[in-house]
Amino acid sequence: MTKSLSRPRRIGVLTSGGDAPGMNAAVRAVVRKAVYEGLLVTGVMRGYAGLIDGDMRPLDERSVGDLIHRGGTFLQTARSERFKTPEGQAQARARLEEAGIEALVTIGGGGTFKGALALQDAGFPVVGVPGSIDNDIPETEYSIGFDTAVDTALDAIERLRDTAWAHSRVFLVEVMGRDTGFIALAAGLAGGAETVLIPEVPFDVGELCESILTSYRKGKRHSVIVVAEGAASAADLGRQVRERTGLDTRVTVLGHVQRGGRPTGFDRTLASQMGAAAVDFILQGKTGQMTAWRSGRVLAVPLEEVVGRRKEIDLSLYELARILAI
Ligand code: F6P
Question: What local confidence, expressed as pLDDT, does residue 1 receive?
């Protein structure tokens, strides 16, 4: 049973899992909204790992200055194996109690919310804020960092298109997204890619090669193929494309470049609204919830409806990318 939370005196905030551009803006919003509401705030370093170790520091409105535009997370982050154990979780709860923290805001993705739900189920009030470049968190249209990661991938795709065109080459560009294709689809559609490969839609290498050759026969002189990391290894696929088509083929893996950099205006706005809403939810007793973005509004969605579920991709966008690539 979650203890019924009268107005807390002190709340905590942490970032966990893979960092995402805009996490700093979210922490800033949590801290400043909490201070505005007369609450004290403790920052927990290195996610759940730092929580177990009691690695914490007090934060006030000045501690979060000059951060809104910075990528990464000044609280640092980690993926903690210890927190997955009942012992680790008990230690974490003990540290929260010692520090006088009465509710916690956790900013991160699926793994972070699994941990948050464990704390909530053990009676400690938590609100989750979705932060992940993958945008794979159910019940919210956007997670913090996705928009920036898509822009970063787009920038790379456009640069690669220039050189692909100049040399009449096939370019395979591998983007992140874990086992989902949200980044690939958004960047591929916006970047005018000839083909987008996502894990949600199986593909056949023979058909892919045939479609590249057909497009060359129809007058195209280059081909940009955006590959979600969960769909295939671009390096392996590039070798096969080169062998089967005989075309000059190159591969670029964008990797962690997509995780850093200045958050876009959208990500900063999203982070500011969600961070502030998380504090509101705590004050309204709406814990065990995630801040979800739907049609321009921030709503509370139970963590139980988020954890362990898979977010569906919009296949009409996939179809559109295919149609517009003719
Ligand atoms: O979840 C964010 C993400 O960047 C994924 O897109 C990627 O698969 C993974 O994290 C990489 O993890 P790590 O930073 O541990 O290599």
Answer: 45
